[in-house]
Amino acid sequence: MFEIDEMALLTREVLRERGAELIAEACAWAVGTSDRPHHLRRRGRLVASGTTVGVRAENGQPLADEEGGRLDLGDARPGSFRDALNMVDAEGVLHADRFDVAVLEPFVLETCVRAGERLRRTRPAAWAELADEVGEDPADAAAVVRAGEWEAPLRIDAEHLVLAAIGDTSLALVEAEGVPLSLVRAAEALTREAAPRPPAPAPRTEDLAGAVFLATVALEGLPTPVPPTHVDRVLDALVEEGLAREEVLGVLPHLPLEPATEADLRRLAERLPE
User: Fold this and answer.
1) Domain segments of the chain: what residues?
2) Is the pTM of this model over 0.70?
3) Who's near 172: CB < 8 A, 6+ residues apart?
4) d(CA 258, CA 216)
5) Residues contacting 79, CB < 8 A, separation 6+
6) Where would I find the H helices in 70-208?
7) Is 89 helix (H, G, I), strand (E, B) or coil?
8) Residues facing 47 on adjacent strands
9) Residues 25, 103: contact at Cβ < 8 Å?
10) How far is Cα 28 from Cα 177, in angstroms, rounded to an integer?
């Protein structure tokens, strides 16, 4: 009999093993914070203090927002990472909240998934029993983790781990430690942005009935099959009928076009805005 609490213990074990990774991610996330303008709330209004976060930290001035900060982050050493987490940004959002979303939540989810995969690998029967208990497919570790709700308590443990390790360290030192990994993360982001997006799935034939009708109307008066000399006229007519890029591409095989005409139209239609 597998107890659900055993999974909670396993997630904590994996978190401890990944502690150094979490600290590195936290440091990388902090890079650039010192260069940002410092903001705080005064009588409920968000105002700029007139200096950057880094200058204020160097002067020994507190960074935290006293009016809207978290109590558990209070009494921080001025200029420390803990102090920086408790300040607001230009949009009035606590840095701690952004840290939760950008670092803690994805890291904790991955940690729980790794724990689940370890359990599935070492004790497959126990994993199957656990998946059945939470009503999820044992092949989907992430779904089992979310259904088991192990993330929330582990996120608290992860936050405590970070604060214990670097909470009282100066923000400048934390940023310096994070520079190498932050460069890696920036390069990964550029690679993802540069990667070609997968083509959108072609519309189903039954979904194209209206578009085919409009396209047929647009071709009235043209010789059939339509020769390549009428490519521009056909494309203009299809666009004027209100067909979107994917609809134009989808209806081409259903229209009376010469092969060369269809090829030219497809090439031109692929350049239309999505």
Assistant:
1) 1-195, 205-269
2) no
3) 34, 54, 57, 58, 79
4) 15
5) 56, 57, 58, 60, 61, 63, 170, 171, 172
6) 81-85, 95-99, 105-122, 124-134, 141-148, 151-166, 171-194
7) coil
8) 40
9) yes
10) 7
- Cβ neighbours for 121, distance < 8 A, ≥ 6 positions apart: none
Q: In the chain, what's the furthest Cα-to-Cα distance? A: 81
Provide φ and ψ at 235, rounded to 5°. Answer: -65, -45
The 3-class secondary structure across 70-81, one letter per residue, is: CHHHCCCCCCEH
Task: Give the integer Cα–Cα distance in Å for 230 and 274.
Answer: 23
Residue type, 37: P
Q: What is the pLDDT along the chain (274 residues), one digit of tens a residue?
A: 556 588 899 999 999 999 999 999 999 999 999 999 999 888 878 888 889 999 999 998 999 877 777 888 888 899 999 999 999 998 888 999 999 999 999 999 999 999 999 999 999 999 999 899 889 998 998 899 888 888 999 999 999 999 999 999 999 999 999 999 988 888 888 887 777 766 655 555 555 777 778 778 878 888 888 888 888 888 888 888 788 888 888 888 888 888 888 888 888 888 777 6
Q: Please count the residues of the chain.
A: 274
Structure tokens at 75: 């009494």
